[in-house]
Amino acid sequence: MKTAIITGITGQDGAYLAKLLLEKGYQVIGLSRDLLNCNVKNLEYLQIAEKVHLIELNLLDLSRVSRVIEKFEPDEIYNLAAQSSVGSSFDNPIDTLEYNTTSVANFLESIRKINSRIKFYQASSSEMFGYIKEENLPIKESLIFHPVSPYGVSKASAHWLSVNYREAYGMFTACGILFNHESALRGENYVIKKVINNAVRIKNGLPAHLQLGNLAIKRDWGYAPKYVEAMWLMLQDDVPGDYIICSGEAVSLESFIHKVFQQLNLDVEKYVSINPGLLRPLDLPVIYGDNTKAKKELGWEYNLNTDALIHTLIEDEMQWLEWNLSQSFASQSKAGI
Ligand SMILES: C[C@H]1O[C@H](OP(=O)(O)OP(=O)(O)OC[C@H]2O[C@@H](n3cnc4c(=O)[nH]c(N)nc43)[C@H](O)[C@@H]2O)[C@@H](O)[C@@H](O)C1=O
Questions:
Q1: How far is the CA of 272 from the centre of ligand 1 (A)?
Q2: What is the pTM of this model?
Q3: Percent composition of the chain: helix, strand, coil (DSSP 3-state, to 5)
Q4: CATH homologous superfamily for 191-218+250-287+304-334?
Q5: For residues 51 and 61, what is the distance between their CA atoms, to the nearest angstrom?
Q6: Which residues line ligand 1 (CB under 6 A)?
Q7: How do the pLDDT tens digits run along the chain, 337 residues long?
């Protein structure tokens, strides 16, 4: 039986990846910064909370990172933990840089010293590319980075550290350069979850109003459960590499929102307004990628267009809301309310 360590297991990608690896027969060790206060709702929703082994670990503590690797002797490590909000990175640049880079250095150093055959996956991000000239779209793996946020800078640094250990020590480090990917398990601070969640609430007669920032931006949005399959595929290959994982399609936030409200037969003008406080100091106007390398070399499959993605996200959100209602109903009955 293979053993995998997943950092950031309680987040969207961590939970979906844990489910995938359990289905493939792995023993899954999940790392969390704060077990007492961590939210295991995503794991409970996917019915895997009892099946993963959760460990509390501060990834900034090199000796403890090493100890966990020595104890569990993993075949694969998926490093998904990060301060992952681009917007918050402008408010907390130092914490973002420290956490997103030191944690990666701690893993790479530990692997190098303990067992350099352990395969390491690093969650890189399309935000590393930053400003892009029109002629460089769609983005390929070879494009030079020019990040435009402290988050993008931190991810670029962690990416190059991973590549450096691959080249300097022959270690198996693979970097998945993921573009925006969404699901019902996404945090509510991300824009697509915010839009879909509010639209579905409105459809169900619940109070909601949607305040948003820059609607003109164009992004390459995809479906998270399909993107975690690519992470696993990267570590099954014989040769490590860097892969862009994206849909290949760019759509503006404004058009995405219109499509969501259209699919739900709702009047967008009635519920959506702009809040200038949600604009970022710098924002990428447009970004979309080319997933040819991942499809060709890893055999990764992805064929959801924007309409199909929206349809799936709406269906998933309805189930998620229903599950949440049943959970609060169950806890109220337990408390005798
Ligand atoms: C690839 C990358 O993907 C994610 O980062 P993100 O792109 O910042 O995601 P988001 O959903 O916060 O913003 C998308 C766009 O939408 C604009 N936008 C407008 N109005 C609101 C709004 O109201 N809220 C938010 N959050 N964004 C808004 C916002 O200005 C931005 O242009 C993370 O997974 C990150 O870890 C990662 O690696």
A1: 17
A2: 0.96
A3: 50, 15, 35
A4: UDP-galactose 4-epimerase, domain 1 (3.90.25.10)
A5: 26
A6: 84, 86-87, 125-127, 179-180, 189-192, 194, 212-214, 217, 219, 253, 278, 280, 283
A7: 999 999 999 999 999 999 999 999 999 999 988 877 778 999 999 999 999 999 999 999 999 999 999 999 999 999 999 999 999 999 999 999 999 999 999 999 999 999 999 999 999 999 999 989 999 999 999 999 999 999 999 999 999 999 999 999 999 999 999 999 999 999 999 999 999 999 999 999 988 879 999 999 999 999 999 999 999 999 999 999 999 999 999 999 999 999 999 999 999 999 999 999 999 988 899 999 999 999 999 999 999 999 999 999 999 999 999 998 888 767 767 666 6
